[in-house]
Design brief:
CATH superfamily of the largest domain: Alpha/Beta hydrolase fold, catalytic domain
Membrane topology: Single-pass type II membrane protein
Largest sheet: 9 strands, mixed
Structural class: alpha/beta
Low-confidence stretches: 410-414, 417-459
CATH class of the largest domain: Alpha Beta
CATH topology of the largest domain: Rossmann fold
Radius of gyration: 32 Å
Number of domains: 4
CATH architecture of the largest domain: 3-Layer(aba) Sandwich
Protein name: Phospholipase ABHD3
Strand order of the largest sheet: 1-9-8-7-6-4-5-3-2
GO molecular function, one term: monoacylglycerol lipase activity
Shape: elongated
Distance between the termini: 79 Å
Subcellular location: Membrane
Oligomer: single chain
Number of strands: 17
Helix content: 25-40%
InterPro entries: AB_hydrolase_1, AB_hydrolase_4_sf, AB_hydrolase_fold
Amino acid sequence: MDIITNNIAKFCSLPTPYIAGVTAAIGFINYYFMFAVKAPRIHCKEGEFKNFIRQNVPIINEKYWPTMWCFEARFQSVLASLIRSFIVPPAPYTREIFTLKDGGEVALDWLEPMKNSVDMQDATILFLPGLTGDSKCEYVRATSLAVQKSGFRIVVFNYRGIGGIELKTPRTYSANNIDDLTEVVGHIKSKHPDTILGGIGVSMGGLLLGSFLSSNEQYVHKYFSAAMLISVPWNLIATTQNIEKPYLNRLLCSYLAKCLCNLVENSSNMLSSSSHKWDYNQVIKSKTIREFDANYTIKLFEHESVDEYYKKASLHDKLDRIRVPCLCLSAADDPFCLESDLPLESADSIENLAILVTVKGGHIGFLEGIWPFSNSNEFMFRIIDQYFSSIFKNNNYEKFIFLVYIIIYHAYDGSCGATSAQNFNTPSSRSVVFTDGSARSSAADMDRLLIAKLARNTVLPLTYILFTAAAFVIAGYFLALKTQSSMLFCKDGNFKKFLIKQVPVVGEKYLPSICGFNGYAHTVLAIMFRFIITPTVVYDREILTLKDGGQLAIDWLYPKYKGPQNLVTVIILPGITGDSQSEYVRETVNELFEKGYCCVVFNYRGRGGVKLKTARTYSATNIEDLTEVLKHIKTKRPNSPIASIGFSMGG
């Protein structure tokens, strides 16, 4: 005890600056180890994708050690840029000048893979830089070299007027306009039609990539198979408020605004004309990003206001529209997007998107270690390598493609009713239930008629009574229809709004045939009527030999108005004993044929007049034959979007 007391006394006798310095150092080290060094948090709905990330991106299970002497968010952001500028070598790109439909030009900088992995197919990663970035920026070069080293081809998309390319038209770019990106992606797929395409978007590039992934272009053409978004300003309204705060944030904002103004000034020959919608002199005097967007961006891209543009460009409320496996990396101290602005609750409810959150890291910083002067083991690049290497290996991305399908139930179907529809909780499905006013509803209406004394007490002929009762049943039946509306079971959101707006029939009353409004009668009569009235379909038959030697028939019907190969192909899977000549299949094929779709019916083993070649048929859960059929169809129609319709067991 005396020893401790004496040591404390000796320490207190030291000069005050020394005591203050030692105390501050101890406090700083304590703070660093307690609050700065932590493993990243993963926000994703519990399920296969979250488990896949945990198992195949092992770095997320490790603690992230931000560089001790510069882990403050803004210092980390600035120093990361400076350090990488010195240590990252030039990337040996091959430049391609790509001409857009309106005559504009952009530069695509390519790097071929450094190594080829036997476990991996040909893969290309498209990189979208930040607000004023291009292929020569330090974080873009570092990422490109890391991706190349991992065995992937990479192409950097330099936006209009960026990367040393002069503007050819009076148009630059914005955070949500995907027109140029759509053309670039189509061009990449035309050059490498068999490549798996991944995407990396950083900062504003993440917004642009996210907008594309949530767009109809991605939904229809399935261009991207996986993506990664880094340091994304998820909510642009909140971001502009954050970066306009004094003093260091405001300096960053002013610097970026100056870069944007320089872009316009460097293209003054195209952008300074008085005929444009913007005032050139006012644009180049913008002091903040919001001012620049108000003076130029919203006028170029015809937005009503800056806030309207920011709402459209923001991603925080669009995560559920992204249908490919997507890993996002954000820092809780990002000066552009604070932890409170991260859409973590949304991510926790989505199966195919995960947000990794580090305590420190800044904006595109993520420096680590005491001596961060080597880009070979930087945290950000290790995550990129581990994620894409695992998601592309053995086509793992296919497990996490978000499929949208609609299931239609009859409320009083003898086999599967409304209760089963309401209990069908698969997150990626949508159930539509139509009610028809069954016998129970008609009986209730009969009771109401009698209570209202609309019947007579006198004895009437039996035939009169029977016809009157039938009339009452029919009247009650349609009365029940008027009091019941269709029910759409779907989580409130963009898809439900889409269905209501674009598929108006789901909001209409379904009027089943009077002679078959009972579930059992309807089923039997539908078979009989369709068998009589549905014309024969003349298919082009193809016999497909499967890997195990088995054979099955694929029946094709090409569109009535033959067009390009990118017309939608609809695959029809019949019910348990159905085939291409079943009446409901023929009726469906005829309707789709008239609308211009390419139809293909998958006849299961032993069905459609094809004898078994092996001792194997089919089941409701085994998808091996379907997998082979789908791959075969994609080889025949590689550019065609594929839709599918499954009836009963086929569903």
